[in-house]
Design goal:
434 Repressor (Amino-terminal Domain), two-stranded antiparallel ribbon, 5 helices, globular
Length: 63
Amino acid sequence: MKNRLKVLRAERDWSQQDLADRLDVSRQSVNAIETGKYDPSLPLAFRIAELFDMPIEAIFERD
C-alpha cells in the first residue's frame, strides 16, 4: 500500500519518533509503514488520519 506518511510528517517537521509518540507506536513501526513494509491496522490508520486531519484515502492508496 502506498502512503504519504513521510511527506506529511516532513511538512510538520516531525521525526519518526515524534510521530511514533503521537500515535503510541514504535519508531520502527512508523518506518515500516513509511517504507511500505507494513500496512497499518484499521484502528491505527484511523488514528493517523485523525492526527493529520485528513481522510484515510488521502493518506493511503492501493498499489
